[in-house]
Specification:
Blueprint lengths: L9 E2 L13 E5 L2 E8 L8 H12 L9 E7 L4 E7 L6 H6 L8 E2 L1 H20 L12 E3 L5 E3 L27 H16 L14 E2 L1
Parallel strand pairs: 1-4, 6-9
Antiparallel strand pairs: 2-3, 3-5, 4-5, 7-8
Helix pairs in contact: 3-4
């Protein structure tokens, strides 16, 4: 993995990431962790120029509560595409809250929960100020850094990915109606699960450790 992560939008040689082409995988580039997310090639093949233009716009977004899109790797011969995102060290909110296999699974204090939720709203406020809808805001798309600060990931990708979790979707999305309210609905689901995990068995978690 010799490619250096720079500010410029990367056209990463595909052989550097091909070992990480699961739905979400972890690879190391330039001594940094990178989340590699595959994009179904058939969803972008007929609109490649639009896709690349939109991804470059996403790459330029900068906010303390957004996970950075470092770059993209394409292999047209194999019809494979991978997006390279930052990988904040604590993983996803999903794994922190309810992955029973994690030894560091935590119970957060009320103060920490409200801080995480506030950080998500700040990141979403920034996205909406740039006229970008997330449309797939889920536990799996929110990362936590080493200090447990929220980093929103996978924003603006809905037309180019397969959806596997419909719990967070607003009802109107079934009719292909989208707006900022769609993201607000998704945030409401996340907020409910964070503040009252006992009422949401999928997000229930337990640990003797308390985070302040």
């Amino acid at each position: 993995m010799g490619r250096k992560i720079e500010d410029g939008f990367m056209d990463v040689p595909f052989e550097e990431v091909e070992g990480g082409l699961n739905r979400l995988s972890y690879v190391v580039m330039d001594h940094q962790g990178v989340a590699v997310k595959s994009v179904p090639y058939e969803l972008i093949e007929d609109k490649m120029s639009q896709f690349l233009s939109e991804m470059e716009k996403l790459h330029l977004l900068k906010h303390e509560n957004l996970n950075c899109l470092y770059g993209i790797s394409l292999d047209s011969e194999s019809e494979l595409c991978a997006l390279l995102w930052g990988y904040p060290t604590k993983g996803t909110l999903s794994s922190i809250f309810y992955d029973e296999s994690r030894p560091d699974r935590l119970v957060f204090s009320a103060e920490r929960k409200f801080t995480i939720l506030q950080q998500i709203t700040q990141g979403m406020k920034y996205l909406h100020s740039k006229n970008i809808l997330h449309l797939n805001l889920t536990f799996e798309n929110i990362f936590l850094d080493r200090n447990y600060n929220a980093k929103i990931s996978d924003y603006g990708l809905l037309p180019y990915i397969d959806i596997c979790n419909y719990l967070h979707f607003a009802p109107e999305t079934l009719s292909n109606v989208y707006s900022t309210k769609t993201d607000v609905y998704s945030f409401g689901v996340i907020m409910s699960c964070v503040l009252d995990p006992v009422s949401h068995p999928k997000f229930n978690y337990y640990s003797k450790t308390k985070m302040g």
